[in-house]
Amino acid sequence: MKLKFLILNILLLAGLGLQAQVKFEATVSKKKLGVNERLRVDFEMNQDGDNFRPPSFNGFTVVGGPNQAVSNRWINGNRTYSKTYSYYLQPNSTGKKTIKQGEITIDGKVYKTTPIDITITSAVDKPKDGDNSELIASDNLHLVAEVSNASPYLNEGITVLYKLYVSPRIGVSNWREMDSPKYTDFWSQNIQMKGLRAEDGEYKGEPYKYVVLKKAVLYPQKTGELELEPLTLSVAVDVPSDRRDIFGGRIYKTVNKTVAAGTRTIDVKPLPAGKPAGFTGAVGSFSFNVNTDKKKLDASESLEVEIEVKGNGNLNLFELPQLEVPASLEKYAPERKENVVTNLNGKQGSIIDSYTIVATQKGKYPIKSINFSYFDPKTETYKSLASEEIIIDVEKGPAPASGNAIAGNNKQAVALPSEQFRFIKLDTNLKPLHQQAFFRSWTFWGSLFLPFVAIPLFIFFGKRKEAIAADETGNRLKKANKLARKYLSEAKKKIGDHHAFYESLERAMHNYLKAKLHIQTAEMSKERILEVLQERNVSEETSTAFIDVLKSCEFARYTPASNSAQQEDYEKGASVISKLDKDL
């Protein structure tokens, strides 16, 4: 009996000893990853401790964390406790790296984790970063450029729609345009957006909401493979976190995500051979008319002849055929009339060349048929249209010298009324000019004494210029102030307009870095900016001030700011650009 109780006591003490054993471990989401992926590191303990000290994370940049999670549960009277510190790391280069030991103090005793070796490979096609908030945003937010026709003919209109697809798993609170697409080698026109409306759609077979942010109509002006540069947005994305509120609901946090539509390649085909005579590059579907406001008139009277092309295509991107008239009809340069609208179907409407014709002699004069040719991309054929011949009947006026009833294109002598030039005066009323001697004139005395007056002025301004050139501090300050005004001029104009001011201020700071340090838009993270400034030996105070201005811009998107606060932020931006330019 005593032996039985002794065994039970030993087992009980052993169980208590196991339960009281401290556990402090480091785990990673993966031990091999690409340089463009992110690593999650968790430091987990089964008892609460003090003075947690993470490792230095050499070879990595901390892009998230520390995030703290605590779990305290009772199951059948047994307590289970867990506390975790989480970090998200971005590798700086490829190769073998080590997550060194983390430390924690529990009940006065220091515990350390075991070092973990990590292998960093070259970039992978599809990076996976565990449950990182930025990865969640990347997987559920997509900007797509939809092109109506990726292989059009030269001068055939195409449309581009930029759609932002958003998964129901996340939310979007705001966005701003960072880089606008440049349509090199295209005639382009943006379609005005009257309002943004969310619509139901699919992205790769999954249900999504999408918003059309931008529309453009393009007409390629050269053949071959042409690239459409991407549209880039900075989007404030609301993603679910690991935390929950007191009612058990998921708590969301906002992360800023940069998305781009990607470069699209348009393969432009040349127009087929066999172009008809007089073809001037019209591509689309058109009708053609030649109209006149009258066909009977007297000599010296005028009439209007209109050459009109109407339809859908590259209107105002080609020339209309010219009007030819007999020599006895005086033709003036045409007046162009355009009634063209641009929508998602391309250019629609009409263009008209209106000619003023003046008759000078009696007779009947033919305006010959005019041909207009265009290429129809739907049927992939050339089409030609011709107008009817128009006879102009001049009833009253001087008769032509030849006496022909029908006048041709041959040149004829024009008989003009004797009063044709009655407005020209034949008598002159000229007055002689009295010449004044140059000697002893005001011009003479001024030319004589001007050099004596100019020499002291040249000496004075020369010394002044030398003094300014010797003032290095003043010149540097002027240069820095001029540089700050150059980049911040747009922001200063928008003080009072809360959102526009902070967008302009942030854009000015980014543009300064682009121009000065050649940092690309994709590298505009605060960590990367700090790293580059440190490499260029910029003082820590100036680097911190620059980042503080960027943080003020981001924070101001979601909170109102007074005009005085905007003025203060503007002065901070001007000051930090001046200091940064001095350090660089």
From TrEMBL:
Keywords: Membrane, Signal, Transmembrane, Transmembrane helix. The keyword Transmembrane helix applies. The keyword Phosphoprotein does not apply. The chain crosses the membrane at residues 442-461. Residues 1-20 form the signal peptide. It holds the Pfam family BatD. This is Oxygen tolerance. It comes from Salegentibacter echinorum.
